[in-house]
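Bump. Still looking for Exonuclease domain-containing protein structure tokens.
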Amino acid sequence: MGRNGFAVVDLETTGLSNQDRIVEIGVVLLRPDFTVERTWETLIQPERDIPNSYIHKITATDVVDAPLFCDVAPYLGSLLNGRTLVAHNASFEHRFLTNEFARAGAEDGLCEWLDTMRLTKQYMGVGKLSEALDIARIRNRFAHSALADAEATAELLRYLCVGNGVDVEKYPTATFTAPAAEAPCLPRGGEPSWAGQLSRTLPTATTKNEADYRAELTCALVDRAISRTEMRRLESTAIAAGLSADDVDAINEEFTRQLAVEAWADGVITDEERATLLDIAEALNVDAQLVRSLLDESTSGPTPSTFALRPGDRVAFTGALDIPRDVWTDRATAADLDVGGVTRTCAVLVAANPDSMSGKAKQARENNVPIISETHFAQLLKAMEDSTEDAPVAAPDAAAPVSAPEQFSWLTTEKSHAVGASSARIAAAWIEQHPDRPLHEIADNLKPHHVPEATGRGIDRYLAMWSLEHPEMLNASADDLLDLHGVGPKRCSQLVEMVVDLAVDGVEETAEGEAAVVEEVTPEPAELPAQPAPEPRPAAAKPRPAANELTPEELLAAAYAPLHAPVPAQSTPYDPALVTPAVTPKRRSKSGKVFKRSVIITVVSFVLFGLCLETFDPEAESFIAGMLALATLAGMLTAGVSGVMALIGKLRR
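Sorry for the wait, here they are.
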């Protein structure tokens, strides 16, 4: 035994193959008498996906700010130096550490390990760590956590050697000669960097597919840049999630805007924060001018220096907000604010665009209620938290289940409780249940001629395209929106969510709309008392674009233009009378996707079949070999058929 005692090591990894990487290291240093000298742990950035998070609970978000193995290799060697190395199933730890030291180009002073699994098989008759711990009555506080597993293994070693007299004197010690300073580390639950902290506060995606892409995106942005390898990985994740290029751009812009809103919460954007957000925008190909406008947002209106929210104050929301409305509602409720409609006692109305002309915005102006942006509201909430952080917190009362607003009568009672007041969930439920029904049927207070409000964001280009393709916008269905150029599931969900927000915020009829309703219910002339015939009134002239506005033809061209061409938002409904309907693009064929997946399945099955023949079944007589052969043949057949269909589809375009 080395004079320095033992180093008990446990690792969590992305998988079991030699291509997999370490994601967490836990080390327990024991003195020669088996008492604990100290412990050390850190998460590791594996620079690849983490497909087995369900086992060790480590996600891509957790390791965004974690060090690389090469950053900790020298210090890890100094911890192991002169000690007997111990692990349960030690061949696993030895193999992964050997591979990682080699990749890092670092000194490898590993030696023969003391394997507690061999000892438990010999002295206890079991091999699994959990079974051995049960026999020894040792509690593992967090199974599949590197440090907790290492601590449990250290106790097991003490149980075997001190309690049962197992001799472990014969093992050599590790030899690492290079000196090393303390290494950066990030334990589970440790504090990440500023960008990492912000990404953790962002609302979760509404679908698992989008969540997978956002998790990969968060991981890639650890260094505020995206390498070619990371870009390819992001592309693969987006393809697997069924996201179109436009949907990916929408997620990237949404992600950046949400980071900017969260960054404003403390009321100031530092030089470091500005540089970080601009670097992220450049890496994601998000318009830098857009990001600068978010960072330079005017501080006019109520801010913590001139205005304060107090528990019990009423707040209201309107428009398609960057942070989803239901997330803001949860945060406001947690701050003991009353969330509801606009009343005379309402403290503030939080709007996606403070110049909004929604029903709620008009009510707010009539009642002298301040209309503020999300960034201002974030500052007000943060000021409330700072003023009450030292106050005792009362146990919250059980909240009554939140139902969807009553105008969404198509929702069953059960579904209404399930979606709650979330615009995104209501929109998703409508798309799932009624994809082919006109969107004005989504709420009882909507009519075909109503127009969703422009937001001043990238989604407005698709709003313009929608209005030009469908003069009465809400006569279109969710399926019709998917037929618009560049609109995939993400964009479609955003557009339908804008319809939901329109219904929730209230729609006021224009004077022309009210006149039209009166004309519809006017009795026939023969039934009226004799009166002088009024002079015929000319039909209302269609409004012409002002000199500083785009014509509908220019709007359509802008809608199909590259993504970062600015499209001015219009405060009036788009004029369909001046538009020549464009040809509706056909849906994209899925044959290409099927072909790609079939080729991948074929190649993987063929490689595994070859390995099977070379290793344990050269005669191909086993069940596994047969299944791999069938998978290869099926993949080839599917790839052939889908490839021909994809080629025919391209020739038809």
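Strands lie at 6-13, 22-30, 36-43, 84-87, 114-115, 314-318, 338-339, 346-351, 371-372.

Edit: fixed formatting.
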